[in-house]
Every structure is written in structure tokens, then in C-alpha cells.
Amino acid sequence: MSILDDARAGMDPAIRPQDDLFGHLNGHWLATEDIPSDRSSWGPFVTLSDQAEEHVREIIEELAATAPEPGTENGKIAALYASFMDEDAVEALGIAPVKPLLDAVAGVRDVRDLAALLGELERVGGAGLFGSYVDSDSRDSDRYLFHITQGGLGLPDESYYRDEKFAEIREKYVAYLATMLSLAEQADPQGAAERIMAIDTKIAAGHWERAETRDVQKTYNLLTSNELQDLAPAFDWAAYVRNLGGAPGAIDEVIVRQPSYLSHLSTVLTDTPIEQWREWLTSRVLRSVAPYLPKAFAETNFDFYGRTLSGTPEMRARWKRGVSLVEGALGEAVGKEYVARHFPPVAKALMDELVDNLLRAYRSSIEKLDWMTDETKQKAYEKLDTFRPKIGYPETFRDYSALEVTADNLVANVQAAAAFETDRQLGKLGGPVDRDEWFMLPQTVNAYYNPGTNEICFPAGILQKPFFAADAHAAENYGGIGAVIGHEIGHGFDDQGAQYDGLGNLNDWWTAEDKAAFEVKSKALIAQYDAFSPRNLPGEHVNGSLTVGENIGDLGGLTIGHTAYAISRGGTVTKEESQTLFSNWAYVWRTKRRIEQERQYLTIDPHSPPEFRANIVRNLDEFHEAFETQPGDGLWLDPAERVRIW
């Protein structure tokens, strides 16, 4: 049916595209492909990530071979990588590098000390009772504010502490904690592990359900420092922020995403004996550094978080983990060289053209909408006109001069890198918003939309086949990166992003009539996805409310990708070209996951499983026309049931 039928290995011609486009493009591959033993999933996304990882390794090892001067960016890259690769030094140091933090935990006398210790732990990369970060103010996008979000769990989600289907994982989590505490020679490791689990369970009882945390209105709660203290009186916020490294006034105003969680946490703090909190803190310290401690710690940590939760049989090779560490600490320094080697100027020029066509396609689509009034359309055009595309790499790369690393103490380097990043983030407070900052590295295989700056970002790492290639058929590029671009632009108009204006502020620019019409379409998409059950998890279902934002992004992205391709072709698209475009869309979602990861992602991931991302084509008239679907086909939807938003 498709002009790609003879060009794609792994297709299953026995599955008709009209019944299951994802299965048609990927069925044989799914049935025969083995996931590498150090991976929890496999497919084009992961393949490209592996390719980028190899390229970064080449850069790092070539830099190290030149013996760069210590203290320079290249010297820091070489030293950090060397400190990770020196296994003998790591084994010889044992847990000595983390002893100061463990001693500090042992000295915690009361809840005030606990708050101070958490600031110290989070400063060097640990995770505490909640998440904190600096971001722009959603109602005043020209300033930064300190943000607080629920946290404190060792398992992926609050549902893991209450749902019967996760009972076995809960047992293995306790066993993991006991082993980790035993390795660190802590008293009563089994009893302590059970008490830690009990604290985790109490904390989880205050968490908001994951779909609810998507609501940008409910999660915008601007508080003064006094109001924050009143919300959680048991927690010493001043001590926490001081040890985190924040300047006076850092939390004069703060955004709290889930206020009721902090109130709940305050009660848990006062109701739990301090000796049990010391056990809980010890486990958090150990977990934060386990990948950088001797092999027994790293293996124990991987056994639970890799094998048990994600089903991955084998820990990744040490060089791969070393590359990840360098990217996390000095990623843009490596990225400069990556871009020079792997992102030619012609690719950027072609991407500029693609993005321009996608924005034109959105404008054309909005003009034709029959459910939106002219008043709201004008506001939508204004937002489109202020979209800022970022392609390939940042205009200015990050300055790492304040980061100090050595080649002989891995944990100290990890903590120094975390402290450097903490200071960089806290240093934003009180200053102008840097709209040139990138939130992904150039070598990352991904993309994003940031509503606070109304920007779409496409790193060089994803601008490769099958998403994009200068020598590919244009229809393939529009079904790959074109639809991804459309998806990211679409986040500016999804159920949450549509509440932000072109300046990045929460600002209701919709008429009541248009908002109601939009909600009807969103609810129809939620209902459609609620009914989907993954082929490998029969009886379980997609959470349509959790995934609706990404589903709207996929639906709009693919629709607009097709429209943009038509614009690039002067308005005329043949059936074969449409088939090529839709086929590449289904191919880029070629993904095979271990069952443990599938189950975890179905619970926590705001993206739908790949098969449903591919088969969202059922909502597009253009798909039904290209493949001549008929009632009774697997992907047939009656025209009245097709959801089309943009």
C-alpha cells in the first residue's frame, strides 16, 4: 500500500495499515527484535540516543588523549570521566566520601535539624521530602521564582504504595532498602527498611493523583514566606533554604504546586519519631550516591531500580554510565564539539524552512476552524507570531569556570557538579529571565515546548534519521520531525498550554464559548484513549486524563505536519505521498519495552504507549483518504467520531 513497503525492514505485510498502522510498519520487528540486555526499551529513539552516546564517548576519549590542561573545560571533562572510570579508586575509597553526610544524619536531633540537613543533601544532588526548582513565574514571565512540588517517595508514584498490583514491588523495595543499609553497616537494616517504608507510605497518602498535577491553575499557588511557614509549620524553611545555598529573600515569594501535600507533610513530620527520620535520611543519602560508590552499592541500586522496576537484566557498561555523568555535569561543554562534528549548516537551514511551514500550517488551520470565534482566533495568531523556535544548539554555551573537579574522587566530583548547578539555578532569582537558555543538550534525542517562554526546542540529536535527513523524501521528514515540531507547537494549544499567552503568562485569552467547545473535543479524546488497552497488557487501560495533553500534541502535530507538507508542495499531495508521511510517523514510534517498564509507564507517563501514538491517525480524514479505509477496518472511525482540534 505504501511506497515504503519495500524499504522498511521489520514491517508485517500480513497486518493491513487500515487495521493497525503501527503493527503494519513494525509488527515483524516487534515479534523478532531483542531488546539489548542493558536497555529497558528499544527502537529508533533509543538507537539514536546510543549513536549520540558513542559520538560523545569519542569526543571525551579524544580530549583525554590530548592531556588537556587541568582547570580548562576540556581538562574538567577528562578529569570527571577519569574519576568515574577508575574503578579501583572507587573501591578503595569505599563509603568514605559520603561519611560526612552520614555523620550529619546521625547528628540530627529534631525536625529543625532535619530541614537543615535536607537543604544540605539537596544542594549536592540528593532528593528530600519535596522537589524544589527555579523557574519563571507563570503569571509574570519576566521574573524567576522558587517552586516547590510534592516528592519524598522511593517508588515511582503514590499508587505504588496502595495498589494491589504493586504489592510484590513493595516487598522488593523493602528488601532493597535493607540490603543498602546493611552494606553501609547500619543497625537493624531489616527493621529500619520496614520503618522507612512506613514513612514513605504516610508521605504518599498526601500526594495528588498524577493527572491532577497537570492542572496549571490548581498548581499555581503564590505564597509569601510567612504563608509557606503557616502551611507547613513543622518544617524550618529558613534553615532549609540557607543550607541549600539560597540568599536571604530566596523564598520571600514561592510557588507551591500542591499546598495540601505540604500541610500533610507537616503532620507526618511531627507524628514520626526523629530516630525513624534518621533512618529515612540515611537511605536517601545512600540512594543519592549509590551509582558512584563501590560495585556492591551500585549493583544493589540497579537491581531494584533497573531490574525490578524496569525489567532491565544488565547494568549499562561503565563507559556509558561515565558518559552520562559527564553529560549531566558538563553537557554543553561537550555539546559544542558534538555540534561542530555532527550538525552541518545545511541541516539547520532545512529545519528553519520546516518550522516556518509548520507555523504557516497552524495559521492556515486556525483560519478554517469552525468551532472557534474570530476574537479567539486573533489571540491564537498573536501567540503563533511570538513562538520562538530553537534549533540545533544554543547561541551561547554555558560557562563552567566555577565548577572544580579532580580525577581521583568520584563522589566529591558528583557533589561538586550538583552544587554548581544548584548555585546556577538559585543565582537566577532576582535577575532577568534568560530566554536564550536551553533546557536540553544539543546531543539529546528529544524536543520540548516551554510555555513560560513560548518556545519550541529541537536539539541536534533528534535531527537525524528517521526523524529528519537532508537526503530523505520530504514526506518522510514531515511525517517525522515535521509532526514532532507540530506536536511541540501543539503544546502551546493543548488543554494546559492553551491557558498561556504569547508572553508566557497564564492569561485567559479564550471566550467562554470557545473554551467550552475546546473542552468538548478534549473530553472526546480522553474518552477515546480511556478505552485503549495495550496489546501487551490486556485488561489494563491508558489513562486518558493523564495523557490528554500529549495526545492533543500528537493529534495536532500530525494534522499540521500533513498540512505543512501540502504547503511545501504548493498545495497538492498525492495518496502515495500521504502514505509515506503517515508511514514514517508510525515508524518513528517503533518501540519495544520490557513488560515491567510498560506497566510503570502506563501508570506514570503522560505520553500514551507508542502504538496509540502511531495509531492516532484514525482521527485524520487525510489518513482515511490516503489508505481508503472502510467501515469494519481496525482503524476506521465514523467521521462524526473523529476528533480534530487544530
TrEMBL record:
Recite the UniProt keywords alphabetically. Hydrolase, Metal-binding, Metalloprotease, Protease, Zinc
Keyword Repressor recorded:
no
Q: Which InterPro entries match?
A: MetalloPept_cat_dom_sf (IPR024079), Peptidase_M13 (IPR000718), Peptidase_M13_C (IPR018497), Peptidase_M13_dom_2 (IPR042089), Peptidase_M13_N (IPR008753)
Query: Signal sequence span per UniProt?
Result: none
Q: Which cofactor does it need?
A: Zn(2+)
Q: Which Pfam families match?
A: Peptidase_M13, Peptidase_M13_N
Domain named Peptidase M13 N-terminal is located at: 17-394
Molecular function terms from GO: metal ion binding; metalloendopeptidase activity
Task: Report domain Peptidase M13 C-terminal positions.
Answer: 446-643
Which family, according to UniProt? Belongs to the peptidase M13 family.
UniProt name for this protein: Peptidase M13
Whose protein is this, by species?
Answer: Nocardioides cavernaquae
